Amino acid sequence: MVISKYKENYIGSLEINDEKLKEYYDNNKEQYKKEEVKASHILFKTVGDDMKPVSDEDKKAAKKKADDILVRAKNGEDFASLAKEYSEDTVSGNNGGDLGYFGKGVMVPEFEKVAFGMNPGEISDLVESQFGYHIIKVIDKVNEIIPFEDVKNQIKVNMETDSYKEKIQQLEKDTKIEKHEKNIKK
């Protein structure tokens, strides 16, 4: 209870006002950037369910099948229908290949690099990853800075938490702490 009250009093003394919050926001806008892609894909696996690579022959067959479906997709066939019929990612395949919105760091790097480099409506060439060959269709892209008002409370909590952690670290550094193991064990 003493520690909780100390923290409460310390945070109350910080005097974090809207001006300080706005200044922090303006200096750290990159943290509040929302960059997401909504994409669908068709996957042709080159690994088994155990994540072990398939034979070279099966890999060639997967690539051939992927190339054939890529041509059909680029020629205007319905991407969702192709995904339902051919995708070996059964979860997204059942939803027409829909992966929903995702940010950076969610998908494997090869997939992510291509998806974030495309414009809505575009269909990629084959993308090879550790899972197999992907055909990616970007549906939508979001690239915006989250407005200050939407993150104001989060910034306040972060500033309070960071300041309190620094205070505790400084107190620990300035204080000689002795542990009496025999008393602790009792």
Overall mean pLDDT: 92
State the strand order across the main sheet. Answer: 2-1-4-3
- SS-derived structural category: alpha+beta
Instruction: Identify the overall geometry.
Output: elongated
State the order of secondary-structure elements, H for helix, E for strand.
HHEHHHEHEEHH
Q: Describe the biggest sheet?
A: 4 strands, antiparallel
Uncertain segments: none
Summarize the structure.
By secondary structure, the chain is an alpha+beta fold.
How is this structure best described in words?
This protein is α+β, with helices and mostly antiparallel strands. Helix content is 50%, strand content 19%. The chain is built from eight helices and four strands. The protein has helices at 2-12, 18-27, 56-74, 79-86, 90-93, 109-117, 148-174, 181-185; strands at 33-45, 98-103, 127-128, 132-145. The chain has a four-stranded antiparallel sheet with strand order 2-1-4-3. A hairpin with a 3-residue loop joins β3 (127-128) and β4 (132-145). α2 (18-27) packs across α7 (148-174). The longest helix has 27 residues, at 148-174. It is elongated and about 70 Å long. 18% of the residues are buried.
Structure characteristics:
186 residues, alpha+beta, four-stranded antiparallel sheet, elongated
SSE layout:
Elements: H1 2-12, H2 18-27, E1 33-45, H3 56-74, H4 79-86, H5 90-93, E2 98-103, H6 109-117, E3 127-128, E4 132-145, H7 148-174, H8 181-185
